[in-house]
Design a protein that fits this description.
homodimer; alpha+beta; Butyryl-Coa Dehydrogenase, subunit A, domain 1; Butyryl-CoA Dehydrogenase, subunit A, domain 2; two-stranded antiparallel sheet; 18 helices; 11% strand; globular
Chain lengths: 605, 605
């Protein structure tokens, strides 16, 4: 039967054949997660996603959210799906059981998230933001805060959000003007206006806990003076009972290009001077707390974008197999029957592009989860640090590069449908619209590129990036010894060695008087890094697949699947990497036009 | 004052400094179109676009079209704009005065179209399709047909459409099943179902004339047996008066991703057995007639996409100049004031990308119009043929490459707005949605790429493509002699010489047993051809600008503008062309993965 949202065979391949996550169960922490359990988790996530969440996707797009008198109604169909999602305990998949979590490996949670986000990423924003806010409480909360809030958040009884952006403080968080004044009882009075708050107000949950970034009176300007507060929508008394409504009022929701089912709210805090919150973590350490949560949040956004691409690929593939249009190009018989469009070369080119990126991105995202798992099972500080470095370097790629490519993939998914791709009766245009936000929120992709260049490239004196190149190198060395992959390995090696060269170059330029030049190439540098990571993942997959094929014991369906893995690597390395080499050449050329041009010369006046 | 929709200075530059269209007025045909007249036309088009059409753009998106009982109501605001558009005689800008046209040069009409389509391309579909249908009548109609229909169509009293697509016949027009049976009175009875008909039914006009592709009983299958008919919505009596309603009934309209203001209709012809039409042109020559009109239609779609990109660039530029966010990257002073985002390198990179493509695309589209003008003023068959060859080769680029790039440019336009780019309060997301259709209709961009490879590359034994390379070569030779442009000229020359190489390679491959491989690279080949054309146009512009700068007499504002021209060429040649070289390398590598992979190996089952 045709797969939807994601290819189960491919998910199983990454989990069990590429990453071998079952091995994690040898460690006490993940002892419960043997192959059977993992498969059951993925199957249950898949069922819930396809049967209950996916049907809300188009409905949610059409219905949108309604705002009236400070209240927000989410699409009607979201309520049942949300209850089932809560019942299945899917909100805190990787968190401790004592707070309502399932304690599963993050790699496995990525597979579940793949299905959930592909089914309806607008819906998933509600539980995902709740979880993110919960994690802040878990990591930075006092015992009392944890006791009051955490379990209700992780079990989805209450929601959570993140109040960060203000009209004049978006990418520049440090410019925020929301203030906090300490009261005699230890709480803080908060005053300010926040915008772009996903799920900031909604009728799915009884209460909403808002982590809020604000500046305590007298604190330094910029990010140095920002603190984090917990501001509940309804005050929570010390005994856990609900008190009065807090003075945190939703003043409106945005009309957006996509993710209509998610309420993007504006909130006014302290409009009547009565908004109360409690400090979360230390004074003036709010930004550091944000940074701790950022990897998780950015990985999630990458997963959202990728899941749209994954669904778009499945749809395009199913469509191309069944849509009859035109003769086979090789046929000279004018009366030959028409064929499914999957036989046309340009459709195949687009499908191969979609396939190879979707597979590479899936491996990357699950691998980042796997690195988290490896940190959790290790007692060795060096091993932990090494995996953490890998995560830190990969996060801008997993968010920025992945969401950029995901949008392109979704556009190909529209194109393969032809005119039907543009109309709402078919799913492809909504995936494209929903996907577009992932390039923007949780730090625009420009910010991701700056993060890679300014923070991650030099992390641990460049060791983290070197370790990434080293891991890629290992896969290449391995592939060189596999029959049929030798030339692919050599092809990848050439590009990766050029990546090392351009990394040195741009790192050096960023520290020179030509610094602005380097930053004008930050985004292209993220692209070529991402390309190399894709090639790595695809070559790794091909190596696994080629070995299985060589064993000659794979089942019939599996043979085609494994051959498809080798083809993805072949396509990417021989067709995409030459373009990567061109991009690297452009970065090395280091042209200064973009930074030299005067503001007037841009025209338009 | 900040420019909107399009940069007037840049439009004037292309018309008067790059193409020198005023020279056309030396020829009798265009004697009325001196500089003053041309400037007045552009100013009037600009005023109408900004003051009357642009305000209908967002309204039309929100309101959309309404379908009820076979009737379609367009957005309310379109009515006044349409009347003004008619009054200004903008429908048939280049056509003979005797039929209601203005007879202006096509190059000038492109400038006007730039403003109109940038103001509201959904609105523009109505008059543009009417004009296209009118052109069919003008070229293929009998005297009687012209007398009955043409002036009413060219003056916008009546509308026109194109009934081509059927549910099972999209890209493969030859698969259509609509039939025509000759009646005793010489008319034909038409029966069939047509879809995706832009403006197929609407309340802007008194009557709608539908050119319909159908197969006469007994005609051969495929495209060889297709004829073209004129089917009026309301029958037109021989004295020009309106008769009874024809049996051509609108059965619904599509909900789409964008261009909501344009009604995309399904029409049932002959549901009651009473749909009548008259033959337009010769029996079984319907496809040839279509081909005659295709260049105009495809140039228009390129213009639509480009105009969205042009508007998106203007918006992004104005936003970047006024949006304050973040400190200057070079500043080490933590208390330094925040700056407009146009100072940030990644924003500049995106603006430069937008600028250079928008300028290159503008020059290309106007140049295609200019080639049409040169055909019209020439009496020399060789000269005419040469320009026609140039148009034929450039059309797939002007439609396919331009709409691909335009969509990317619109996406950058969203990105520069950050979160505001995704919300409907700002214009950028609508431009992205509207623009997306241009990659699909009037032949998907996959079809455009096949057209370039299969028809245009070998046109006149390859002479047309060689002439294109020759024209580019002339500009390069000229630029080599201009101080400051030498290295840019050399850079462009390298890429163009590689383009010649890859054209030979792919042309040869397309004629070999590896034919499918070649077609799997048809789209990349269109991309690299387009890149070379962009480099040509930008270098041509830079040459003009550098000469003006060298004269040292330009006004203050002009100096910045001319410097900006050199910067665009510098950016494109040094930053984009290295990537083009990589793309060429990938085509030359000619990897077969996309055509070799088995259908099963794509997965998803």
């Amino acid at each position: 039967m045709a797969q939807v949202i994601a290819d189960r065979r491919d998910i199983d391949f990454v989990l069990h054949e590429q990453l071998q996550v079952e091995e994690l169960s040898k460690h006490e922490r993940f002892a419960d997660f043997n192959r059977k359990t993992i498969d059951m988790i993925v199957s249950e996530a898949r069922n819930l996603a396809i049967k209950e969440i996916f049907p809300t996707w188009k409905l949610g797009d059409e219905e949108g959210c309604r705002f009236e008198n400070g209240k927000v109604a989410v699409p009607e169909s979201f309520h049942k799906a949300y209850e089932l999602f809560r019942e299945g305990e899917w909100i805190a998949m990787c968190d401790p059981a004592e707070w309502g979590g399932q304690g599963m490996p993050s790699s496995v949670a990525q597979a579940a998230g793949n299905y959930f986000n592909g089914a309806n990423c607008a819906f998933m924003m509600y539980p995902a933001l709740s979880h993110g806010a919960g994690r802040l409480v878990e990591v930075f909360g006092t015992d009392k805060q944890k006791k009051l809030f955490l379990k209700n958040m992780y079990t989805g009884k209450w929601g959570g959000t993140m109040l960060l952006t203000e009209p004049e403080a978006g990418s520049d968080v440090g410019a925020l003007t929301t203030t906090a004044v300490r009261n005699e009882d230890g709480t803080y009075s908060i005053t300010g206006n926040k915008i772009f708050i996903s799920g900031g107000e909604n009728d799915l949950v009884e209460n909403i806990i808002h982590p809020v970034l604000a500046r305590i009176e007298g604190a330094p300007p910029g990010t140095r003076g920002i603190s984090l507060f917990l501001v509940p929508k309804i005050w929570v008394n010390d005994d856990g009972s609900l008190g009065e409504f807090n003075d945190a009022v939703c003043t409106g929701i945005e009309e957006k290009m996509g993710i209509h089912g998610n309420a993007t709210c504006s909130l006014t805090l302290g409009g009547k001077g009565k908004c109360r919150g409690t400090l979360l973590g230390q004074e003036n350490k709010g930004m550091q707390a944000m940074f701790v949560m950022m990897n998780e949040a950015r990985l999630l956004v990458g997963m959202q974008g990728f899941s749209c691409a994954s669904a778009s690929y499945m749809n395009a593939l199913n469509y191309a197999r069944t849509r009859i249009q035109g003769k086979a190009l090789v046929s000279s018989d004018k009366d030959a029957p028409s064929v499914p469009i999957i036989q046309h070369p340009d459709v195949r080119r687009q499908l191969m592009l979609m396939k190879s990126y979707v597979e590479g991105m899936r491996s990357l995202l699950y691998y980042v989860g796997f690195c988290e798992d490896c940190i959790r099972i290790s007692n060795d500080a060096d091993v932990k640090a090494r995996y953490q470095g890998m995560i830190d370097v990969l996060i801008p790629v997993a968010k920025g590069y992945v969401s950029d490519r995901a949008f392109e993939i979704c556009s190909h998914g529209v194109q393969i449908y032809g005119g039907y791709g543009y109309i709402k009766e078919y799913p492809q245009e909504q995936l494209l619209r929903d996907c577009r936000i992932t390039m923007i929120y949780e730090g625009t992709n420009g910010i991701q590129a700056m993060d890679l260049l300014a923070r991650k490239l030099g992390l641990n004196k460049g060791q983290a990036f070197k370790n990434l190149l080293g891991e890629i190198g290992k896969t290449i060395e391995d592939a060189k010894n596999i029959s049929g992959l030798e030339s692919l390995a050599t092809g990848a090696e050439k590009t990766v060695s050029k990546l090392g060269e351009v990394a040195l170059h741009i790192g050096k330029t960023a520290g020179s008087e030509k610094m602005l030049n380097a930053f004008a190439f930050a985004h292209p540098f993220m692209e070529v890094t991402g390309d190399a990571v894709m090639a790595w993942m695809l070559l790794w997959r091909a190596a696994v697949a080629a070995r299985k094929l060589a064993e000659g014991k794979s089942k019939k369906g599996d043979t085609a699947f494994y051959e498809g893995q080798v083809k993805s690597a072949q396509f990417f390395i021989n067709t995409i990497l030459p373009v990567t080499v061109g991009k690297i050449a452009a970065i090395l050329a280091n042209d200064g036009a973009a930074v030299e041009i005067s503001e007037d010369a841009f025209g338009g006046k």
